[in-house]
Amino acid sequence: MIRACDPAGFEAILGVVNDGAQAYRGVIPAACWHEPYMPESELRGELAAGVAFWAQVEGDQLRGVMGIQDVHDVTLIRHAYVLSDHQRRGIGSQLLQHLLNRTARPVLLGTWADAVWAARFYEKHGFRKVAPEQKDRLLSRYWSVPGRQVAASVVLVDPVARRELDLG
Predict the structure, then answer these.
(1) Exposed site from 67, 78, 134, 157, fewest CB < 10 Å?
(2) Edge-to-edge strands of the sheet including 153-157?
(3) What is the CATH T-level fold of the domain 2-164, as seen in this structure?
(4) What is the pTM of this model?
């Protein structure tokens, strides 16, 4: 079952993010890794900035979370994580499809360049990487990320974004 997360689920969202993010340990640049991967203050900031989280749940357990955020003329998919012992079971696909069905706007997402499995996941769902010079422009327009993260990231776009944002 997919449901919207409410403020009472803050700790559960944080738990899923930090557990699921363990897949990036040793993969992303060491300067970008920290414990916990997402501190409480960062999650509170993302919620305050308008990221709405959705969860895949079984009973009362969140097994995966994914955020969606409208920024300017696009929708961003943000913070997609599945509990490590539930990965590769279709939970991320369910969440992504649910969020894609919630918007008619162009959709962009970013992930770590060295997390090739993450990019492949999104490519399987019709997203395509943009060229490096487009990536930098898109990251500066739609995200607030540090320079070292920009250098270590890729941006993927859905077919609507590719066409409407003239990304070739």
Answers:
(1) 134
(2) 2-4, 52-58, 61-71, 74-82, 107-112, 153-157, 128-129
(3) Aminopeptidase (3.40.630)
(4) 0.95
Please name the residue that has the structure tokens 């403020």.
7
DSSP per-residue codes, 40-79 = HHHHHHHHHTTPEEEEEEETTEEEEEEEEEEETTEEEEEE
Mean pLDDT of 91-109: 97
**How confident is the model over 33-43, as pLDDT tens digits?**
999 999 999 99
Backbone dihedral region for residue 15 (phi beyond 0: left; psi -120 to 50: alpha; all else: beta): alpha
- Element spanning 157, H or E: strand 153-157
| Beta-ladder partners of 56 | 2, 64
Answer whether 112's CB lies under 8 Å from 153's CB: yes
As a whole number of angstroms, the distance between CA 76 and CA 88 comes to 23
